[in-house]
Write a structure and sequence with these properties.
The complex is a heterodimer of chains A (317) and B (464).
Chain A lengths: L1 E4 L4 H8 L5 E4 L6 H30 L2 E2 L13 E2 L3 H8 L1 H31 L7 H13 L2 H11 L6 H6 L13 H26 L3 H9 L4 H29 L3 H6 L10 H11 L3 H30 L1
Parallel strand pairs in A: 1-2
Antiparallel strand pairs in A: 3-4
Chain B lengths: L1 H34 L7 E7 L2 H17 L2 E7 L1 H13 L7 E5 L3 H6 L7 H6 L2 H4 L2 H8 L11 E13 H5 L1 H11 L9 H11 L26 H12 L19 H14 L11 H9 L5 E5 L4 H4 L10 E5 L3 E2 L5 E2 L2 E10 L6 H11 L2 H10 L6 H4 L2 H6 L3 H10 E2 L7 H16 L6 H19 L4
Parallel strand pairs in B: 1-2, 1-3, 9-10
Antiparallel strand pairs in B: 3-9, 4-5, 4-6, 4-9, 7-8
Chain lengths: 317, 464
């Protein structure tokens, strides 16, 4: 007779032990590696589903409904399914197109500025000079600050009555904050100031990884500076520049904290998409319409990223 | 075997941490209980905006703590996110606060959604409806208006009023030049028209500042801060020129919001706005007070609750020569003279989700007492208690209290229905485009707003 017992039945085991004719096989219930692994992953998984996945699915559902979080939930009334009405309203609203265009202008100006200045600074920092380390540290500082703090700081700089910006440039009392013809540029300038170091750092990393022997070989062939730059430097750091571009494009597209700090969310603030999304969702509590704007932004960011990743992969190959 | 050991050690450490944490947490509570009397452990939390009256309330509530042993914490949130923060908490049915001193126009939203406890019986039982001004009960506490159902007690009465530089208004050269230009004496504005003349007169006028390098401007008034600053200034000029925001009883907007009177009011705002200092597109109370204390404007419009900073020498070098006046009357497009001020201020409401309703009601009962209201007024709070408002103690307590008393007689409020925030946003955008941005005309802006508001009311079912 074979009696399978578990650890929990040790008393029974002892009793059985007294009988010599009984053949005992003890089995312990250990956790398998996979079970243990799953157990460890479970809390994180629950958190991820609760915080990321569920809101994503719920907001997608809401984007097809008429719903405000401010009022009590009454199924069929709040939320009330309205199909793609939110999306058609967004895409057929001229005010929304104004916001898309303003956001595109902002992204192009700020990212182009950051890429040119960041890469330029990285090239300059390839030169050896006294105090290079200190200058590099100082240049990186803006990037380490909180965007909200940067926004509030630039708001002070831009103050038309006593701000240092107009004073240093001798511009008189120009209003950079609440004048709609200028305040987009004021955010672009602050964004470039803050994020140029990011492109610069990546570019420095890329430039230092270019093998020196390539330049030495080109020098033996008496290649010009321009030839070395266009045929060695650019192709070699192209993937890193693409990476910097992807990161900056995504960030610039959904910019919120910097304009919130500089211009606030008043009627004269530049009509940027993320600011509008905030106003719609949390000021006027049009939750479902806000969700639709959010999804359109998500699709646009994914599309831009996929295109750029395609180029990045090509460059790697 | 190794894995088993690691698992065991891990579980052991987790167990020790949990048990230890519980023991220490319990231990500290016991120690606290031994040191303090039992009553002191009780507390209530009040949520209000971040401004001087909240500090006054915190100070005032110390008396309540001394009387009852119940601590009071006044939690403050910056104005820009104040309403949004408590709305978010209420949507989540949070018991973070026992009392909310919420914005008057939000009372409909809070009442309809059940976030505030109805206090009608309580208010009648404690005679609040008889002891406080009818206007404060109507605008801070009642929803729907005229229904006799209350969701708050009057806490901070407030309204838009004006501060001006008496020294500049009384200077001989200014008086002479003003009379020569406009044909009447420079004095405290007797009408909105006169106020605009004064703003125009002082705009870029030389010799008005202590520092010659500083430019001088005509007036400091609100721009749009993204909440209600522009709407609050705009509504009072709409009313005095004979317009309306709509009919609050039947939600009719067309013909009222875009009437001749309303158009004249918004045109007036646009004209007056030309005399503000640069960068006033997003101006709210801070910018207005800053411009005044910097000595670059002769007058500013602000909520009375922000006037303590103007009467204080430490924050306003011109405090001694600062005078105050209520929003002036104005002859409207129909020839009628009207006088209105945009209501500010808040009522204190009991949160439905509070677990300490009994303590919160105790605080409310204490707060509405006449003696407490008098002390509230002396500290700088704006009482709505009729008796206190009429005492000389109150009128002499600050240089602007007589202005407050007058303002209490002329104030009027924005829409208080749950859709008030959407109305605010659309109105602010449409009107700011014209008043600040200079786009289109007042009629176009108001017609656009009328269409949008009609759509909002229609969607909300008010016309069904």
């Amino acid at each position: 007779m074979v009696c399978k017992i578990t650890r929990g039945n040790m008393n029974m085991q002892r009793k059985i032990d007294k009988k010599p004719d009984v053949d005992i096989e003890v089995h312990y219930h250990y956790m398998k590696d996979k079970t243990l692994m799953r157990l460890f992953i479970l809390p994180t998984l629950i958190l991820l589903i609760g915080i990321n996945v569920f809101p994503l699915i719920w907001s997608l559902f809401l984007s097809f409904a008429d719903y405000t979080a401010k009022m009590s939930n009454v199924w069929g009334k709040n939320p009330k399914m309205i199909g793609v009405a939110n999306y058609t309203r967004i895409l057929s609203d001229p005010d929304m197109w104004d916001k898309f265009i303003t956001t595109a202008k902002y992204v192009i100006m700020s990212v182009a500025g950051e890429m040119i200045l960041g890469f330029g600074l990285a090239l300059l920092l390839q030169l050896e000079f006294k105090g290079k380390g200190l200058i590099l540290t100082l240049l990186v500082l803006p990037m380490t600050m909180s965007p909200v703090i940067v926004g509030l700081m630039w708001r002070l700089f831009y103050n038309p009555n006593w701000g240092i910006f107009n004073y240093l440039l001798g511009l008189g009392r120009i209003d950079w904050i609440s004048d709609p013809s200028r305040n987009l540029y004021s955010i672009v300038i602050a964004d470039i100031w803050m994020w140029t170091p990011f492109v610069m750092l990546l570019s420095i990393a890329g430039l230092s990884a270019v093998p020196k022997y390539l330049y030495e070989a080109a020098e033996i062939d008496r290649a010009s500076w321009w030839f070395k730059f266009t045929r060695i430097t650019i192709p070699m750091i192209y993937p890193i520049l693409m990476l910097a571009l992807i990161f900056r494009l995504i960030e610039a597209f959904k910019i919120f904290d910097l304009p919130m700090g500089i211009t606030g969310r008043g009627a004269m603030a530049p009509p940027l998409l993320a600011m509008h999304l905030y106003n719609v969702s949390f000021v006027t509590w049009n939750t479902s319409y806000g969700a639709s704007i959010g999804y359109i932004m998500l699709i646009m960011v994914i599309a831009i990223t996929l295109i750029l990743i395609k180029y990045l992969n090509k460059a790697r190959q | 075997m190794m894995r088993k050991k690691i698992l065991f050690v891990g579980l052991f450490l987790l167990g020790i941490t949990l048990v230890g944490g519980l023991l220490f947490a319990g231990g500290s509570k016991e120690e606290g209980a031994a040191e303090k009397p039992k009553a002191e452990k009780q507390f209530i939390t009040i949520h209000w905006a971040q401004w001087a009256p909240s500090d006054y309330l915190q100070k005032l509530s110390e008396d309540f703590t001394n009387e009852t042993g119940i601590n009071v914490i006044v939690e403050q949130t910056p104005w820009e996110t104040f309403v949004q923060k408590y709305n978010t908490e209420m949507i989540a049915h949070s018991d973070a606060w026992d009392i909310i001193i919420g914005d008057s126009q939000d009372i409909g939203n809070m009442a309809v959604n059940g976030h505030y406890v109805e206090l009608t019986d309580w208010i009648k039982k404690h005679g609040v409806d008889k002891r406080f001004t009818p206007a404060s009960l109507r605008y801070f506490c009642e929803y729907p208006k005229g229904a006799g159902r209350y969701y708050a007690i009057p806490c901070e009465g407030d309204g838009l009023a004006w501060a001006y530089r008496k020294d500049l208004f009384e200077r001989a050269d200014n008086k002479a030049d003003f009379k020569a230009k406009y044909g009447y004496d420079l004095d405290v504005p007797q009408s909105w028209d006169m106020l605009k003349d004064i703003a125009e007169f002082f705009y870029h006028r030389k010799g008005q500042t202590d520092d010659p390098s500083k430019e001088f401007y005509g007036v400091a008034i609100y721009g749009d801060n993204g909440y209600d600053s522009l709407a609050m200034f705009a509504e009072q000029v709409i009313w005095v020129f004979g317009g309306e925001l709509g009919d609050y009883s039947n939600y009719k907007v067309d013909g009222l919001l875009n009437s001749k009177g309303a158009i004249a009011g918004i045109e007036y705002y646009h004209e007056l706005y030309k005399f503000v200092p640069p960068g006033f597109g997003d101006a709210f109370y801070v910018k207005c007070n800053d411009a005044f204390t910097a000595g670059i404007v002769p007058m500013t419009c602000n909520y009375l609750a922000f006037f303590p900073a103007l009467a204080n020498k430490a924050t306003n070098p011109y405090a001694d020569v600062t005078g105050y006046f209520a929003c002036p009357p104005q002859k409207g497009v129909d020839g009628k003279i009207r006088q209105f001020s945009a209501l500010g201020g808040q009522g204190a409401s009991l949160v439905t989700y509070s677990k300490k309703k009994d303590l919160a009601l105790k605080w409310m009962e204490w707060f509405v007492r006449d003696d407490v209201q008098l002390k509230w007024a002396k500290l700088g709070g704006y009482t709505c208690d009729t008796k206190v408002l009429e005492t000389q103690d109150f009128l002499n307590a600050t240089p602007y209290n007589p202005t407050f008393k007058k303002t209490m007689e002329i104030f009027k409020d924005w829409w208080a229905c749950p859709e008030y925030d959407v109305l605010l946003r659309t109105f602010s955008k449409d009107i700011a485009d014209y008043v600040i941005g200079g786009k289109g005309t007042a009629k176009e802006a108001l017609d656009k707003c009328t269409r949008e508001w009609t759509e909002i009311f229609k969607k909300a079912g008010y016309y069904d």
